[in-house]
Amino acid sequence: MEYIVGQRWVSHADAQLGLGVIVEIEPRRVTVNFPAVGEERTYATDGAPLTRLRFQEGDHISTVNGVELVVSSIAEQHGLLLYTGTDHHDEEVTVSELELDAFVQLTTPQQRLLNGHFDRNAAFALRVATLEHLNQQQCSPVQGLIGSRTSLLEHQVYIANEVGQRFAPRVLLADEVGLGKTIEAGMILHQQLLSGRAKRVLVMVPESLLHQWLVEMLRRFNLHFSLFDSERLAEIDADNPFESEQLVLCSTDLFIGQPERQQQLLAAEWDMVVVDEAHHLHWSEQDPGEDYLLVEALSKVSAGLLLLTATPEQIGQASHFARLRLLDASRFHSLEQFVEEEQQYRRWSDMALQLEAGEIPDDLPEGLDPEAPAEQLIEQILDRHGTGRVLFRNTRAAITGFPLRKLQRHPLPTPDEYRFASLDLQSSLHPELPYIDDSWLSFDPRVKWLESILKQLRPAKALVICAHADTAVALEHYLHLRAGIRSAAFYEGLSIIERDRAAAYFADEINGAQTLVCSEIGSEGRNFQFAQHLILFDLPLNPDLLEQRIGRLDRIGQQQDVQIHVPYLEGSAQETLLDWYEHGLDAFSNSCSAGYMIFEQFRDRLLAQLEQRGAEFEDLVSDTAEFTQATRRELREGRDRLLERNSCKPAVAQALIQEIGQRENSEALQPYLEALCDAFGVDQEYHSEGALILRPTEHMLTGHFPYLREEGTTVTFNRDKALSREDMLFLTWEHPMLVEAMDMVLSTELGNAAIGTIKLKGIAPGTMLLESVFTINCVAPRELQVERFLPLSPTRLLIDARGKDLAHLVPHERLNTLVQHVKKPVALAIIKQVQEEVDAKMLEATRQAQARLDDILSSAEKTMRETLGAERERLQALRAVNPAIRQEELDHLDYQIDECAVHIRHASLQLQALRLILTT
């Protein structure tokens, strides 16, 4: 080993010293100065833990003056290396190794291997496995769909896939109550964020749902939203507090009467805005509300917009049009035209039925081939007509898995205190309201009945809903303090945290409350399908509110029939309204999406009967029942039927669910996690079938491992177990723990250089094999989704002494079982002897990998142009007949095609890992 003053060497015993320079040479000692740490060390010339630093052509180097070069050639002068390369001005510069920056980091596999910095073979195998798994995810047709802690329901998976893959989706999610619109929105957001199509998201919900959204997004989708309220806004010291976080959750009410906050919100540049309970936005053609105007302004500055409502028809045709107008003002610009179009929906539905029956309609739209298969024609009709692209609505009639509803009527005598009081209509339905104290509790028969029924049902849980907060508070106090029944109250006077605690107390199976007493706010958004009994202490006058109340229990996931208990005072307005709901609207047995519209039709007649029931009531009930049946039939056969076809395509959904299942049930995830934990020093313990307990240790490779708590974290790989055990993390390839840990592997040098020995029959001892793994490096904005067409594509080569590739003869997994560890002193000695041979084999491996790259890039560009081009042609053809296709979508596809082509052509090879193997 020859040392010359001025040469640059690195210590493979302590890489933290940085790049050293030889400053003094004695017969048996050499002194090295390490400028990066300000230390000088003297070593014995024999056995010094030093390796000469030699950069290669193509390496990036930095000088002490901050000049960065890409090495193009290397020369040697008086024992010192001279590097020639181009700087960022494309000018050629030559520097001596003396000028190199001392803060060098050896990160490329070749640098680390030749300078004696290598890892265990297990780390090398982990790095290769990481590349393979990441490549599979990039190629997966269900990317973005497997990471949510949800049941895989056809209609939810279909909508999430259909909407989540769009550029800046603008849609109205209008599934009926209980079908999971929040989950659909979360799945869409998860996919948009994971793919990079969206980075900044704003979610606006009623104040009562803030904490539920916060918890649901975190628990089900691992999305960490920041909750913004008045207190938080006051604490943030920034010009625009809404720019301080990427994912923001807030109440719509936060901005009412606050023009400065509104301007800040509008200036924050959101990629996606989500508005829940959109039917609450106040709108009229002459006087739109402040909340509606704010969302309208947001819709103009945000690329994506999701509106959620279970009641698109009930709010009225004009109001429904106003919400669609938020999605696309150019498409929905005329209410009159919209009404005219809606009248055509029945025609398209009938046409689809004819095609299904094997008949070719006489009035088939121009441009459709009557010889085409019926399914294809139906798809084209759905694509071209209606609001199906911007409106998704699944109905209970089309989705299985719902329980039966069973009404339990409980007539009670009207007390004298109520009978002789002068009551208006509101007080007739809620007779306790005129009392300023709780004295009504002593004589209202509903109170004693409630105590009795709860004791009869014990230990079964029951949700109690009444219209007003004062009623709810009084009842809960009575049950808790006087009747000895475990109970909790849920009303608008509580903070968000207090409401959530009350709901959690009710949900606790072992030590929780038997009953939760809610005011009307408990009828929206919250899900209590673990309970079977619903007690309606009073009835709302609005059928939509009644449906929302029942929907808290009657939803997917309910395992038993829903028992609806209604106590009422005989001969009162309560009984009249109950009779109308039961026999006229059939609201207790069946969900009715047009309930409010029917109520509006009979409002005057119903109100008159509520004030004084007379002989005309039977006619009212009969007329309501007849009208309700006709309306349900119209919705079923017309618009709803057409929308259902476009809102869930079972064959497509089943294929997606099957693909998700295959990715989940592969046996690769758990072994990969265990290898990750071994590499990073995380302890693993068996918990149960498909579940592990992970714990940090004192000898962890890094101080942080994602999502690992100090007390330990329990994880499961099983979806069913994850749905029943919320205390466990549900690990999929898309969980942040895996995503971040995989990034920790690939963003560092872990496992990118290794050395080992092997015994192979037929190969002489001392033969050197060089295993290299290349990937494709395509630097492109995430939102372009180039990896769909050009994934990492790991390319493995195993170069022998003759320059032949033996990778196909000796698979990587087989090689891992055969390779043996080499002690470091021996490995260092080997490296010093074979540097030139390694360089030669590396050049041959790079040449062969480069030869494959051109075909990969050509194929990727062809696939990209075919896929995106076909989608553009489809949308272009549709736009001629369906104005729901936005020009922005076509423009974005043009941009995406051009930009993807540029980035694909500029893609290059990246050496990811290198392993030197010697036969013994």
Would you kindly provide a written description of the structure presented here, covering whatever features stand out?
The longest helix has 45 residues, at 835-879. This protein has 920 residues and is an alpha/beta fold. Helix 21 (616-637) packs across helix 22. It has a seven-stranded parallel beta sheet with strand order 12-13-11-14-15-10-16, sandwiched between helices. Strands 17-22-21-18-20-19 form a six-stranded parallel beta sheet, sandwiched between helices. Strand 8 (80-86) and strand 9 (92-96) form a beta hairpin. The protein starts with 7 loop residues before the first strand and ends with a strand. Keywords: Activator, ATP-binding, DNA-binding, Helicase, Hydrolase, Nucleotide-binding, Transcription, Transcription regulation. InterPro entries: DEXDc_RapA, Helicase_ATP-bd, Helicase_C-like, Helicase_RapA, P-loop_NTPase, RapA_C, SNF2-like_sf, SNF2/RAD54-like_C. Pfam families: Helicase_C, RapA_C, SNF2-rel_dom, Tudor_1_RapA, Tudor_RapA.
In short:
By secondary structure, the chain is an alpha/beta fold. It is 41% helix and 18% strand.
Which descriptors would you attach to this protein?
SH3 type barrels; alpha/beta; Rossmann fold; 41% helix; 920 residues; six-stranded parallel sheet; seven-stranded parallel sheet
Distance between the termini: 26 Å
**CATH architecture label of the largest domain:** 3-Layer(aba) Sandwich
Q: Gyration radius, to the nearest Å?
A: 35 Å
CATH secondary-structure class of the largest domain: Alpha Beta
Helix count equals 30
CATH fold-level assignment of the largest domain = Rossmann fold
Content of β-strand: 15-25%
Uncertain runs are none
Task: Going across the biggest sheet, name each strand in turn.
Answer: 12-13-11-14-15-10-16
* Average pLDDT reading: 86
Whole-number count of domains: 6
Helix content: 40-55%
- Please outline the major beta sheet: 7 strands, parallel
